[in-house]
Design brief:
Elements lengths: L36 H7 L5 H24 L3 H19 L4 H31 L8 H19 L7 H21 L1 H19 L2 H22 L5
């Protein structure tokens, strides 16, 4: 007589699912209803980055605004200086990603300052030597016009092979050197600066390379034409 094996009771297996993390039943902070902005600002909870960052910004912003107002209210020149500084800072912030344009503008301003100073020094020296001489300042305006020419010339080229700001910087350096020469030779300063700026724009803008390539092509055609001519019998 055979015995039947006792039936084994199997446990009911639960379907496998994602493991539950501790504290999953708690409501998420991001899904919780947001508090009003004023209450968030006053409570200053460490987990609330918006409120924590806003407080120092408000404090330092109020202090900076009060300082600017005090400085600007002293005199008319102080007001002009503050407005010019704010305008310059705003311009730099707007052009913070255009490094080449910032480099070009910065070097142009420095070139205008240096050339104006050197031309004024040369005029004052000539005034001391000759009592009838007058300080005209024509050389300074010529240098400033050349600085603008370098700035515009670098951006007029549609496909500039190099960096435009570096082109303007090189032209401004040559312009400052020409203004130093103009302290001793006033007739040659502006002309030398013009030739230098023109040479830098031509070399950096690809004009000189294009002219050289066309000249080589023309010479090659002439040589080919001479080689194809029959020899004189």
């Amino acid at each position: 007589m055979s015995r039947t094996p006792p039936s084994r009771t199997t446990r009911a297996t639960r379907p496998a699912g994602p493991a539950r993390r501790p504290g999953a039943d708690r409501p998420d902070a991001s899904t919780a209803p947001s508090l009003p902005l004023l209450r968030r600002f006053l409570r200053q909870e460490k987990a609330d980055t918006w409120a924590v960052r806003l407080l120092p910004r408000v404090v330092f912003g109020a202090a900076a605004l009060y300082t600017v107002i005090v400085l600007a209210s002293r005199s008319g020149s102080s007001f002009v200086a503050v407005v010019a500084t704010l305008f310059l800072g705003l311009s730099l912030w707007l052009m913070r990603r255009r490094t080449q344009l910032l480099l070009a503008l910065g070097t142009s301003i420095l070139a205008v300052a240096f050339t104006g100073y050197f031309s004024a020094v040369g005029d004052s020296a000539r005034l001391r030597e000759d009592a009838g001489a007058t300080v005209t300042g024509q050389a300074a305006f010529g240098y400033w016009a050349l600085a603008g020419m370098a700035l515009l010339g670098a951006w007029m080229v549609k496909d500039h092979p190099g960096r435009r700001g570096l082109t303007v910087a090189l032209a401004d350096v040559i312009l400052v050197i020409a203004s130093v020469v103009g302290m001793f030779l006033p007739e040659a300063g502006v002309a030398l600066g013009f030739l230098g700026v023109l040479a830098v724009l031509a070399l950096r803008g690809g004009t000189a390379k294009a002219v050289t390539g066309r000249a080589r092509q023309a010479l090659g055609r002439l040589r080919a034409g001479k080689a194809s001519d029959p020899a004189d019998s």
